[in-house]
Amino acid sequence: MKGLEPSTFCMASRRSSQLSYIRASADYRGRRHGGIRLWATGCGRRQVQRHCWDTPQMPSDRVYTRLSTTSAWALKAFGKLNVPLYRASRGRLFGQIAGTPVLLLTTVGRRSGAPRTVPVVYLTDGERMVVIGSNAGHKTAPAWSLNLQANPVAEVEVGGERRKVRARVAEGEERAELWRKMNERYSGFDDYNARTTREIRLFVLDPR
């Protein structure tokens, strides 16, 4: 079984017939849910024993945070790759990061006037959506957040659905509460905030 290296493999005794079919499946969620199961046919009465394999845990929020903070250029390049794949798959590809949902946000370029689309993790809060201009804690704010400040009219894509929205910057208690909710979904934002001296803006996207 090329590519699978559990510490111990299950072995099946053969009688007169040969092993004709083996299939392996694993739960890669990082929890012990039975690990790999092997099924066999043509093994006579003796069944292939079930072996529990400890799969590695899925990367934590902190792992994704560290990856996103390595290079602003790499982060931007990944975003450009993300957009066409997200659209082509209607959000089935790159629709989540560390279990947090991703939308495509289209803003109007503050200098060019042209539409600019980027992937952004978000939180749904009633009919509105919440996004944070963290730029992974890099020293400059993401271009999309500057675009929203210049022109709050925008559009979002969630899966294959498009919605028109109007953005505003949350402040005070509202910001604190929404920041807390966002960090419950993805704890990397506190790490991003600790990496930069600039004020990270939190935007509320209201339907229009």
What's the helix and strand layout?
Layout (H helix, E strand, L loop, with lengths): L20 E5 L11 E5 L19 H8 L3 H18 L6 E2 L2 E9 L6 E7 L1 E3 L2 E5 L10 H8 L2 E6 L2 E9 L2 H14 L2 H8 L6 E6 L1
Antiparallel strand pairs: 1-2, 3-4, 4-5, 4-8, 6-7, 7-10, 8-9, 9-10
Helix pairs in contact: 1-5
Q: Could you characterize the architecture of this molecule?
A:
The protein is α+β, with helices and mostly antiparallel strands and 208 residues long. It has five helices and ten strands, in the order ββααβββββαββααβ. Strands 3, 4, 5, 6, 7, 8, 9 and 10 form an eight-stranded antiparallel β-sheet that branches. Strands 1-2 form a two-stranded antiparallel ribbon. A hairpin with a 2-residue loop joins strand 3 (96-97) and strand 4 (100-108). Mean pLDDT is 74; it is low at 1-61.
